[in-house]
Write a structure and sequence with these properties.
heterodimer, A: alpha+beta, Arc Repressor Mutant, subunit A, two-stranded antiparallel ribbon, 14% strand, B: alpha+beta, 5 domains, eleven-stranded mixed sheet, seven-stranded mixed sheet, 27 helices
Chain lengths: 108, 860
């Protein structure tokens, strides 16, 4: 297991949403989680989680191009780093190992 | 003030988010359509602040050493948090008390601001005035002024920067779903410019839109756009038909936009065909520096254009927007604001009391720390930090409470105060209240910290038990008296309103409301022209016979609505043939009713007969009058056979019946009924008495109407219960809010009395033990404690009664058939306080009785 331990549910959701999206930035990440997972997260939670993940080197961010509908301001775009992908895979694998043989969890 | 809050939140956000993120966050919000909204900004900033706090670690605790600077303050905060955490009872009570008071005050102040202080959400709204036609001779009745007069007033360019009038009509929209009636306002392009309002999407009206022959164009509300057009931008250019005329949509107004005076959904450009005599809603914008009084004088000196109007006593009358809802609600809101301020005072007293007792208990700790060399400055700083944390916690929790309070206010608001739905929390008020609670906590927290330097350290350390000084107890007893007095004032106010409300709802409505429901049917003139009266009547007859046959319908009739909302006829001159009447004014409570009206509403016929199917257009005109009017004019003699008319150009109508009076906006107005068949209005309320739940019949009623005309809106659906509740909604609102404040006040007072009595028992434990050792019975000890609390209680009740007797005069105008110094209410409220306080004394008394003399004296 990596240094960070198992990623929280929230962190996994945000990482997966960033991976799924063509242009991942806070607004689209929030919409994606809401649309696909059916979980409505507050804006603040999205920002803080992205910041936390960036601090741990699991995502990295940079400023994109400015667009007129945003009042000429740029988007902060995100990308999952190699370390992020590894942490995500390990976390999911760890959970799977724990669930193995525990039938009630695997049903449905 | 909002700008100030905006800047503060932006500063906060920029401080807590990672560097380089702030701009993109603002842009994200803008993309989400929340540009400039304060809530999301504050929420994001709060989230980052929490994150920073939870991951924060102190560098190295340096407790006990003197010094200033950042890390020390951080340590101080951590220590204060830990200390507060260790006494959860104190912390929770203090924070909850502050939250209740701050929340309730913020909510009421926000409501007051939106209704009274800043009623119109437009730039320069303090220069906007409503212009009415007022008649001093008719009890100051206000009507919308005629266009001829408006045109004349427009010439007063030295007073008015602009003067705009508009006309609202209810028209039927058929597109999408059930046909519905919407309010459409016809206005000039200059009106929106005067208000500084513009569409969010699409274009504004231009002068060409009002030219003769111009294609009709429409601005739609944000709500209709979402509801009927799914919020797509392609709505621009689409057609929407109103009463059969196609209009082109040219724009969508911003969410929540409404003209002052209206609850509109659509705005159309006024045509050029408006008649000069038409009366229209009028708003003026005063020139900067011109006062309402100066403008009124200018209007008075001009008169209206119509000599006839002037002779009849009509003149222009200016009304400030804040007076639009009438003075009743003003007084009500000011009374509520006063009550809630009392609650704030009570909460501050309570917190002061709490802080005092906490510090009394900590005298030993403070003394030890002084002895260990901690400076007085450090102790003071410690107390200050604790106070800031408590007040901050109270303010944050108060924000939540104020949101619930506003939800409550919206849920029970009087029917005519739609403006309350738009109330938002006032940041300035919240900040002010946070500071007020901070001052209280600091003030009472500091006293012991300052006096800590004067401690006789040895004495404090030697006695070993945490004790209050006698002077501390005196202060606390005075605070408890204040709490009882303040709570009593609130409870007395609530009791008065409760009693008044009880009397208001007990008024006999004059009919049987059980199972009655009404829907209004208004035939549109473009499909049922006035010249085709037979078709209109055919429609109403069809609907009535279909409604009668519905299963579950006991009886059905047409009328003007459910009393007291049966409509007012104004501008009438009532005459009785062969008699001169006293001055009745020109207002009548009249209704056009079908023969079964009285049976359906359960109004008995006192004399004569009800209308019958033989009272038609061809037969002799007849009327039925209300009992009070009959008694007043005929003084016990029978009015049957007498003749009256309500307008000099009408035929005389014979009185054929007398019925009891029903609920009315003003019971002094004569109540007069006319047969529908002789008046033939193009509208009517279908009134139905159901055997069971009237609302269950609604689908069947709609179907019965739509069987005759599938495009007719079925509107203003009301049960009699709803109508009667609505007429008392203002009184219920005041009563419910004041009662909740009083309940909070009572709770706080109980906490206060309990606290002071517990302290008393704790302090006198040794004395009580000695008394018992010397043979005093447990009962005598209990009595001693009880006497102490009785002194506090009685002083509180005396002071509270005096205060309430003075304050109650402010309530007078809100009371119905209840004296402001109603002895019964005062007694009941005092009894409630006494009971509550007695309950709060039980636990201390039990504790006093349990004092074990041997253990106590051994400890000595």
């Amino acid at each position: 297991m990596g240094r960070g331990g198992i990623l929280g549910e929230l962190e996994q959701m945000v990482l997966l949403a960033v991976l799924r999206l063509a242009t991942p930035y806070p607004v689209s990440v929030r919409d994606e989680i809401s649309a696909v997972a059916g979980v409505d997260l507050s804006r603040g939670t999205i920002y803080v989680t992205l910041h936390r993940l960036e601090g741990r080197g699991l995502v990295e961010s940079w400023l994109g191009e400015a667009t007129p509908e945003r009042g000429g301001k740029a988007r902060r775009l995100f990308r999952v780093t190699a370390r992020g992908r590894r942490a995500l895979a390990e976390s999911r694998a760890a959970l799977d190992r724990l669930g193995e043989g525990v039938e009630p969890v695997r049903e449905r | 003030m909002r700008r100030w809050v905006e800047r503060a939140i932006e500063w906060w956000l920029r401080r807590v988010v990672p560097s380089g993120w702030a701009d993109s966050i603002f842009a994200d919000l803008r993309e989400d359509g929340r540009a400039g909204a304060l809530w999301p900004q504050a929420a994001i900033a709060a989230r980052f602040t929490l994150e920073a706090l939870s991951s924060w670690r102190p560098r190295r605790p340096r407790w006990g050493t003197a010094g200033t600077g950042g890390p020390m303050l951080a340590t101080e905060i951590r220590h204060a948090c830990r200390a507060l955490w260790r006494s959860p009872g104190f912390t929770a009570t203090a924070v909850l008390t502050l939250a209740l008071a701050i929340g309730a005050n913020t909510a009421i102040y926000s409501a007051l601001r939106s209704i009274v202080l800043h009623p119109l959400p437009f730039p320069d709204s303090d220069r906007l005035v409503f212009v009415w036609h007022r008649n001093a001779g008719m009890g100051g009745m206000l009507l919308t002024p005629p266009r001829t007069a408006i045109a004349r007033w427009r010439a007063l360019t030295g007073v008015f920067e602009s003067l705009e009038s508009f006309d609202s009509r209810s028209l039927i929209v058929e597109e999408g779903g059930e046909p519905a009636e919407v309010r459409v306002t016809f206005l000039d392009p200059s009106t929106l410019r005067m208000l500084g309002a513009a569409p969010r999407i699409g274009r504004d009206f231009v002068e060409a839109d009002t030219a003769p022959g111009a294609p009709p164009v429409l601005l739609i509300s944000h709500e209709i756009w979402l509801e009927r057009f799914k919020g797509v931008p392609e709505v621009i250019g689409r057609a929407l038909s109103l009463n059969g005329t196609p209009y082109t949509v040219i724009g969508v107004m911003p969410p929540g936009f409404d003209l002052p005076m209206g609850s509109d959904a659509l705005w159309a450009a006024a045509g050029s065909d408006r008649a000069g005599t038409a009366r229209e809603n009028t708003i003026g914008k005063l020139r900067p520096g011109v006062t309402l009084e100066q403008a009124q004088q200018a209007l008075d000196s001009l008169g209206s254009a119509d000599a006839d109007d002037d002779r009849k006593g009509w003149s222009g009358y200016l009304l400030a927007p804040r007076d639009h809802h009438g003075t009743y609600i003003h007084r009500a809101l000011y009374v509520l604001a006063g009550a809630v301020a009392l609650l704030l005072l009570l909460a501050c007293v309570n917190v002061a009391n709490l802080v005092l007792s906490r510090n009394a208990a900590r005298r030993r700790e403070l003394a030890v720390r002084r002895a260990l060399g901690v400076s007085r400055g450090r102790l003071i700083r410690h107390v200050l930090v604790e106070a800031v944390i408590l007040a901050g916690g109270g303010a944050v929790a108060g924000l939540l409470v104020s949101r619930w309070c506003l939800d409550l206010i919206r849920a029970i608001r009087p029917a005519n105060l739609e403006a309350l739905d738009r109330v938002t929390i006032d940041g300035a008020a919240l900040a002010f209240l946070g500071v007020a609670s901070l001052v209280t906590t600091v003030l009472f927290g500091l006293a012991p910290a300052i006096s800590a330097s004067r401690f006789d350290l040895q004495a404090v350390l030697k006695t070993g038990s945490p004790q209050a000084t006698p002077s501390g107890l005196r202060v606390r007893r005075a605070l408890a008296v204040a709490q009882v007095a303040l709570a009593l004032m609130l409870v007395i106010g609530a009791t008065l309103l409760l009693r008044s409300y009880g009397r208001l709802t007990a008024v006999d409505p004059g009919f049987d409301p059980e199972g009655v429901i009404a829907v209004r049917l208004d035939l549109p003139a473009h499909r049922y022209p006035a010249r085709d009266l037979a078709r209109r009547e055919q429609f109403f007859d069809d609907v009535l016979s279909r409604a009668r046959e519905l299963p579950g319908v006991a009886s059905a009739a047409f009328g003007n609505g459910i009393p007291p909302e049966t409509g007012v006829m104004f501008g009438r001159t009532l005459e009785v043939h062969g008699r001169t009447l006293g001055d009745h004014g020109s207002l009548l409570s009249g209704a056009y009713v079908s023969p079964d009206y009285f049976t359906t509403l359960g109004i008995p016929i006192r004399e004569g007969r009800a209308f019958s199917t033989h009272d038609t257009e061809g037969s002799e005109p007849v009327v039925i009058v209300g009992q009070a009017f009959a008694r007043q004019v005929w003084r016990g003699a029978s009015p049957l056979g007498a003749r009256l008319r309500t307008q000099s150009n009408e035929a005389w109508a014979t009185i054929v019946g007398v019925v009891p009076d029903v609920a009315s906006p003003d019971r002094t107005w004569p109540q007069i009924y006319f047969p529908r068949a002789q008046a033939r209005p193009g509208w009517g309320s279908l009134i139905i008495r159901a055997d069971g739940d009237p609302l269950a019949l609604l689908p069947a009623i709609k179907a019965a109407v739509w069987a005759s005309d599938p495009q007719l809106p079925v509107q203003d659906i009301d049960t009699a219960g709803q109508v009667l509740r609505r007429t008392t909604s203002g009184a219920r609102f005041n009563m419910a809010l004041l009662a909740s404040f009083a309940a909070c006040g009572l709770l706080l007072a109980v906490v206060g009395v309990y606290g002071v009595m517990t302290l008393f028992v704790g302090q006198r434990q040794r004395e009580l033990g000695i008394r018992m050792a010397l043979g005093a019975s447990r009962g005598a000890v209990a009595l001693l404690v009880f006497r102490q609390s009785a002194v506090v209680l009685l002083s509180g009740i005396v002071i509270g009664t005096l205060g309430a007797a003075w304050l109650a005069t402010f309530l007078q105008s809100l009371l119905y058939e209840t004296a402001p110094r109603d002895a019964g209410s005062f007694a009941a409220a005092s009894a409630a306080i006494a009971l509550a306080a007695a309950a709060a004394t039980i636990a201390p008394i039990v504790r006093a009785r349990r004092v074990d003399p041997t253990t106590l004296l051994r400890a000595e």
